[in-house]
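[09:14] KT: can someone run the structure on this one? pasting the chain below
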Amino acid sequence: MATKVNLQRRKLLISSVAAGVAGAAVAMVHDGELGAPPQTIRGAVPWKEGTADSPPGVSGSDYAYFTALEAEFIEAAVARLIPHDDVGPGAVEANVPFFLDRQLAGPFGRGDHFYLGGPWAKGTPEQGYQSRFTPAQLYRAAIDAVDQYVAANLGAATFAKLAAADQDTALKGLESGEIKLEGGVDAKSFFTMLLQNTKEGYFSDPIYGGNKNMGSWKMIGFPGARADFMDWVDQPGKTYPLGPVSISGEKA
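[09:31] RB: done, structure tokens below
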């Protein structure tokens, strides 16, 4: 027992010394300079306009990933997922198709943060995305498969050519999994990703290409990237009087 206690005390002392050394090393590194004296800040936090790093925005207006047929499908589908009405803009008016195109043409579309290795057994909903397709590949394969299904079963050349009510029926069939798609595409997985990405494009900062003119933010009274709106936090039910601000500095 005495030996065990001594060993535990020894481990504790060693770890304490190591922590002290690490803390001293951290204290010596300041402003990227080894051995610089510590700085005491009093009053307001020092801040300079324009010094923060902005996320990479998007540019252009043409589609970089979608083909013409794919763009027709996306524009028709997102218009049914978030239609235009008197309350606010629809997904098309909010430029969601452009947002989706730029996301699929970039790291998200390549699946940079997805594990895409096998085996590809069908997973449970709790396991999240399970597919050999990158998101961009899933969109491309699914759009083609949906158009093939529509041509074979719903009497139109493509999904975009269907009447709005029939488009809703088809989307519900994808959501429930009742529609079976060719090419190894899981209909429910595609619909889940499409709906989630549509919401993201609708409510994201305009710097990423969607939420044109911050229409969705104005609709819900969201202040956006304003530096300070704390005066309004404790005023529930009162309309926020200032328009939203984008990360880029654009004001609505």
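[09:33] KT: thanks! Confidence is low (pLDDT under 50) at residues 17-34.
[09:34] RB: yep, looked fine to me
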